From TrEMBL:
It comes from Caballeronia udeis. Coiled coil: none annotated. The keyword Repressor applies. This is AcrR family transcriptional regulator. InterPro entries: DNA-bd_HTH_TetR-type_CS, Homeodomain-like_sf, HTH-type_TetR-like_transc_reg, HTH_TetR, PsrA_TetR_C, Tet_transcr_reg_TetR-rel_C_sf. Keywords: DNA-binding, Repressor, Transcription, Transcription regulation. The lineage of its organism: Bacteria, Pseudomonadati, Pseudomonadota, Betaproteobacteria, Burkholderiales.
């Protein structure tokens, strides 16, 4: 009779069972990945996508090209991971807050609630050091103003659904605005905000305006909402009405009038994925 032989089960290595040199290797690997993400984020915030290079990223991260390929597979994947690290959770929080407002308020939903769903999660995350802290707002500003097709296509593709959800919410509370007109207004509002956030002196400007007084986050969003809601609710320009700027352009001849035509439907780009976006609320 053949005796069954029991083969001892090989334990799965864990942090507690790894020897010191193996644990050090894991820490080094994890730190390298994080350093690459942090370096890419800092360079992107400061200079934008087109000014970034693998040499600058790896030098700042104290890593090499092989590490980038190992952890991410290349520069584009690294940039995707860098943006997703900050924006995925943020946008989930935005959508959750928007859904909560829509569910609890119904027909009482206002522009202010939608703007709150866009901005409150971003401002709260910017106060959390573990989630990049103040750098988050500059990251949002840079992401939504960066002219690189790579960045724009990434935001449109990954966050198109979220952008559409917010756009539809605005249409619900502003039913008198044609889709194209709403697209223009959101494009201008969120684009202006993103430009401000991309600047390095935003915090100092806010401090100057506050004149030494403490400005609560609710007050900051309140001031922002006042301007944006006024723009969103501005009267429509009637088709046959005279634009007051027409005569000003006419006084300066054909030079100014020869500017390239503007796109007719910015809403097709998604007002948030180009962000603003803000698209994401980001900001």
């Amino acid at each position: 009779m053949r005796t069954a032989i029991t083969v001892p089960e090989t334990p799965v290595p864990t942090r507690s069972t790894l020897n010191p040199s193996s644990r050090a290797s894991l820490r080094t690997s994890g730190n390298t990945k994080t350093r690459l993400l942090d370096a890419a984020e800092t360079l992107f915030i400061d200079a934008g996508y087109e000014a970034m290079s693998m040499r600058l990223i790896t030098a700042r991260a104290d890593a090499n090209l092989a590490a980038v390929n190992y952890h991410f597979g290349g520069k584009d994947a690294l940039i995707h991971a860098m943006l997703s690290r900050r924006l995925d959770g943020l946008n989930q929080g935005r959508l959750a807050l928007l859904e909560r407002f829509q569910s609890s308020l119904g027909s009482q939903l206002t522009c202010e609630h939608i703007l709150g769903a866009m901005f409150i999660p971003a401002l709260q995350q910017s106060r959390c050091i573990e989630k990049s802290g103040p750098a988050l707002l500059r990251l949002l500003g840079r992401a939504y103003t960066d002219p690189s097709p790579f960045i724009r296509n990434f935001l449109r593709g990954v966050y198109a659904e979220m952008a559409e959800r917010f756009f539809n919410a605005f249409q619900t509370v502003l039913p008198h605005l044609p889709r194209e007109e709403l697209g223009w207004r959101l494009h201008f509002c969120i684009g202006s905000l993103a430009g401000i956030l991309a600047g390095a002196d935003t915090d100092s400007r806010i401090a100057d305006f506050a004149q030494g007084q403490r400005l609560e986050d609710s007050q900051l969003i309140g001031r922002l909402a006042l301007v944006m809601v006024a723009a969103l609710k501005a009267p429509l320009l009637l088709p046959n009405s005279v634009c007051q700027f027409a005569s000003m352009f006419a006084e300066h001849g054909p030079v100014l009038n020869s500017a390239a035509p503007l796109k007719t439907d910015p809403s097709s780009e998604s007002p948030f994925a180009h962000d603003a976006a803000s698209q994401h609320v980001n900001a």
